[in-house]
């Protein structure tokens, strides 16, 4: 008998659904612009079986990939499991074999040494391939049309590290997919590797270096010449794993760093510039760009730990007020002798899960969108919360004028990460739409919302009811028809 625990992680809105589905024509209120032609991919963590240790965090669920194909004013929905090695082993056994999040010491002996990745963090299209990503393992390749799983890739043996980021970036100038891995030589190691992959899928070069301490290197940014990393002390140790503590904990005693890595073959650790700042929390980035010798990195930053389930390593209680993340700019001048980076808060919106117009990745840009916690709006936790925080507002920030826009989805709803859809390949920045999933917490249902990207405060122009409840998801991306046409014809 399969019985999930009666805990907050597996009840209410978070009750497991575990559904694979095909719906060719979703019911839509409003009008889907007929100019939109492409697919929105996203992923949610979803446990295939009750957790081995009785309870678990969402971050340890198996990846369930959703695809919304938008064409001719209609929306089709497809959802499939990302069938990782872990998923296959547990599916065959009919039960969970892998234990706590990123703690191999808690696994069943039968799976010792197996890849533990869940492919549950991002769904990313590059060069005609769909990559289902989790940062503690290699990239899982899936078919972007059928969503069937091909398997893990090491890029024809050229990737020597053990991990690949959940947040790659595609350089709009070269078409290369830029990525990295941390703990590249194994669990808890300080080793990092930067990679560039051509549109054809060839790994062009790698750069190896070490971080000042082991930490969760969740995201990064690129500019024309550099890869830029924010290093925050979300850290761990074998002692933590041996004690059965959560893999990560936040260390308020450590400084943060901004690393600037030249994006070219032959770069060594000695070529990397490290800049230091005061202790703070950051995980995601918005974008980065360079002007002359100056490098700018925009990102959400909090005074203290954002993750209540990765507690303070010294036992300090979680502080929700200090966990608020604000749009912040870190900057350095590559000609400076100082080791410090400069920091500036740009907005007072509590802002996370940031997105930009991807055509401006690594370039000076104007707009960013994100999930906002608006303390001025009422919250009713009917049916439970889809996450640790109730993010019930879509926000937009204009980096040129400082203007903000918000759209609140109501007291018993929350939203997932937005994604930008350009009107056309050559449209000006921001000319297009925002697509995102909205959780209806009380009804245990989900909708797909579409907004005019530069007028989100006016509300959605279309809302599609999804006949499958989508649990809280993490990240996703848009692929235009040009990225999909050849693949659909092949299928």
Tell me briefly what this model is.
With 491 residues, this protein is mainly beta. Helices cover 5% and strands 38% of the residues.
Plain-language structure description:
- It contains three helices and 32 strands.
- The protein has helices at residues 85-93, 238-242, 481-490, and strands at 21-23, 27-30, 38-46, 62-71, 74-81, 122-126, 129-133, 139-142, 149-153, 169-170, 177-182, 191-197, 203-210, 221-222, 226-231, 234-235, 249-250, 256-262, 273-277, 287-291, 294-301, 326-333, 342-355, 367-373, 393-398, 404-408, 413-415, 419-422, 432-440, 445-452, 462-466, 476-480.
- The model has no long low-confidence stretch (mean pLDDT 95).
- With 491 residues, it is mainly beta.
- Strands 20-21-22-23-24-25-26 form a seven-stranded antiparallel sheet, with no helix packed on it.
- The longest helix is centred in the last third of the chain and has 10 residues, at 481-490.
- The radius of gyration is 21 Å and the shape is globular.
